[in-house]
Amino acid sequence: MKKNLFFVAVVAFILAGCANEFNKVLKSTDYDYRYEYAKQCFAQGKYSKAETLLIDLIALKKGTDEAQEALYMLAMSQYMNRDFDIASESFKKYYQTYPKGDFAEQAAFYVGQSLYEGAPEPRLDQTPTIGAINAYQQFLDFFPESQQRPVAQQRLFELQDKLVQKELLSAQLYYNLGGYFGNINSNNESNYISSIICAQNALKTYPFSRWREDFSLLIMKSKFQLAENSSQDKRLERYRDAEDECYGFLNEYPESKDKPLAEKYIAKCKKVVGD
User: What are the pLDDT digits (tens) for 68-127?
Assistant: First the structure.
């Protein structure tokens, strides 16, 4: 018990000493000393302390040989602290300020990497995802021979997948909303139409997506439901369109697990169309 208490006391003493040392450095007017201490913190993985010191030193080191190194270390400290939005801006600032600097290639890569790490799930706004795609693309344009090229390319595929998933979720949402209106009305029709448009646009934008069949299925289902809920004057035309869509689906995906559904829709359409 006494040994444990002694150990705790020693640790507390050491931590208090470290805190006092850091506060002393933080208040010091010897900026070279503060900078060397910040570099030491960075090298030791103490990124929060490094960031705290470097924020003040960036302006003070402006115009010196250490300015670009200080800015890069600040950006990397923010990244390691998982402050991805702030880190992306700091990396961008470095690259814009020092396009031919010692860390220009790394900074350009980490603009995209920071945005990638902070990109939200597909259901949420994908503005950061689009920003990451643009950043990675710019990196590949300016550093086509970089060793980070394979990573950046893989990240691009992953980010584009997020955008496709976002479109798929939107199309599915419109389809699901269509079924919430029991009567034939403009809201009911507009939701199915919106699902069709959303899915069709996604297929045009991402023709080789792994969710291509899912989009095609939504178009088929939406067209059939649109026909089912149509007014008398539009009913025949829409059933014909739905039937054509079903045949198109079966031609493209003859082994689909949804083949029975497509055949069921075709049978119902034939009864109405009279083929």
Answer: 999 999 999 999 999 999 999 999 999 999 999 999 999 999 999 999 999 999 999 999
Per-residue model confidence as pLDDT tens digits over 187-217: 567 899 999 999 999 999 999 999 999 999 9
> Does pTM top 0.85 for this prediction?
no
SS3 of 207-238: CCCCCHHHHHHHHHHHHHHHHHCCCHHHHHHH
**Angle in degrees, CA 102, 89, 38, rounded to 5:** 60
Q: Positive or negative CA dihedral for 239, 254, 168, 88?
A: negative
Q: What is the DSSP string of 39-106?
A: HHHHHTT-HHHHHHHHHHHHHHTTTSTTHHHHHHHHHHHHHHTT-HHHHHHHHHHHHHH-TTSTTHHH
CA distance 119 to 144: 24
Q: Which residue has the tokens 């950046």?
A: 152
